[in-house]
């Protein structure tokens, strides 16, 4: 029979990246945790970790066992919560760039169920707001823009994407694969005021003599998509956005891109090397 505390020690090492941080997270001494891991390995009859001075890595057996350990821990926490007991869960506060589709984050959460393993908190904000929250310790991890040259926090790149037009499916240009800026000179547009490429987009149109009328200025992408689909105007958005009733043709000559990735505070840097299920679920959605 496996004691739950041994599972917690094992998951602590996986999540924290080494024995000393895992011991602190589990509120035990490092020798106590090491003895527990050794007991777990003897019980299972196989080594679970490859230890070195620099890092701790899972063995093949450890990787297989991790799947079962995560499931057992989740089910235990569900039982505890359903019985009204207070499970001793670690805190995970995630910040997400506001210009990342909410449905991608929601799908990742639905798949990983972070609230079963953590006291989970979710916050949306701009790149600057998220950096400030990380610096002040208000969030542990952020999904935001990376490769910006700041070097302030540890980063892990996930994906790079471009931008494209978004226009109503019944627009006369909707089925055109690529549209020149000049062809939009008489179009009404919607401004995404929180867009990280806003100044670059404005300059691109202005240099080509396009100065449109703006029917809506918004920081809410769901609202922007709704009104684009309604035919109020068109806009420029990251390529990852999809919505019923909208087409996404390319904007000819517009080469702007953005790179999204994880940014971690000091206490969570280990997650960049050994991402948890929530991170991998969201990454799959971003790369789809």
Automatic annotation (TrEMBL):
GO molecular function: DNA binding; DNA-binding transcription factor activity
Keyword DNA-binding in record: yes
Keywords: DNA-binding, Transcription, Transcription regulation
One Pfam family it belongs to: LysR_substrate
Superkingdom as given in the UniProt entry: Bacteria
Keyword Amino-acid biosynthesis: no
InterPro entries xrefs: LysR_HTH_N, LysR_subst-bd, WH-like_DNA-bd_sf, WH_DNA-bd_sf
HTH lysR-type domain span: 2-59
GO cellular component terms given for this protein: protein-DNA complex
Protein family membership: Belongs to the LysR transcriptional regulatory family.
Family matches, as PANTHER family: HTH-TYPE TRANSCRIPTIONAL REGULATOR CYNR, TRANSCRIPTIONAL DUAL REGULATOR HCAR-RELATED
This protein's name: HTH lysR-type domain-containing protein
């Amino acid at each position: 029979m496996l004691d739950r505390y041994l599972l917690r020690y094992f998951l602590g090492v996986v999540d924290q990246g080494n024995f000393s941080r895992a011991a602190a997270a589990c509120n035990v001494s490092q020798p106590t945790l090491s003895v527990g891991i050794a007991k777990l390995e003897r019980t299972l009859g196989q080594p679970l970790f490859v230890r070195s001075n620099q890092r701790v890595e899972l063995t093949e057996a450890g990787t297989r066992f991790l799947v079962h350990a995560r499931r057992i821990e989740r089910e235990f926490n569900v039982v505890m919560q359903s019985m009204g007991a207070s499970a001793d869960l670690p805190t995970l506060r995630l910040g997400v760039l506001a210009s990342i589709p909410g449905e991608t984050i929601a799908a990742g959460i639905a798949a990983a169920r972070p609230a079963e393993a953590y006291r989970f908190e979710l916050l949306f904000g701009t790149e600057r707001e998220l950096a400030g929250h990380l610096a002040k310790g208000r969030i542990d991890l952020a999904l935001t823009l990376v490769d910006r040259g700041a070097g302030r926090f540890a980063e892990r790149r996930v994906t790079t994407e471009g931008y494209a037009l978004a226009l109503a499916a019944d627009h006369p240009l909707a089925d055109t694969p690529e549209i020149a800026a000049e062809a939009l000179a008489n179009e009404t547009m919607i401004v995404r005021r929180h867009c990280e490429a806003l100044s670059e987009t404005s300059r691109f149109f202005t240099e080509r003599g396009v100065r449109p009328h703006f029917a809506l200025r918004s920081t809410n992408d769901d609202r922007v998509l709704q009104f684009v689909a309604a035919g109020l105007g068109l806009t420029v958005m990251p390529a990852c956005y999809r919505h019923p009733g909208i087409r996404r043709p390319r904007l000819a000559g517009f080469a702007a891109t953005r790179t999204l990735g994880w940014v971690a505070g000091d206490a969570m840097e280990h997650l960049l090397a050994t991402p948890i299920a929530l991170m991998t679920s969201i990454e799959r959605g971003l790369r789809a």
